[in-house]
Design a protein that fits this description.
Length: 85
Amino acid sequence: MEYKVLIRLFVPEIEEEYEIYIPINKPVGEVVKSMNQLTNSMSTGILPIRDEIYLINRQTGVCYPGDAMIRDTDIRNGTELVMIL
């Protein structure tokens, strides 16, 4: 069974926000790539696909390293994250 958490994702580059479920048993880097593809397909604008994408906690300002597992971070249901391209 794959456990997931519901987060709110803000993407300032396209001025959009999304509520999405992310798996806790994956590294941040892999989840960020999936979120970039998802937001690119859902947005009206074209998001650049970049190697360097930062995922930042909106309340605390913590920038999550790509190799950290989601379950080992403070990301929980209701966490607000900002994706910086």
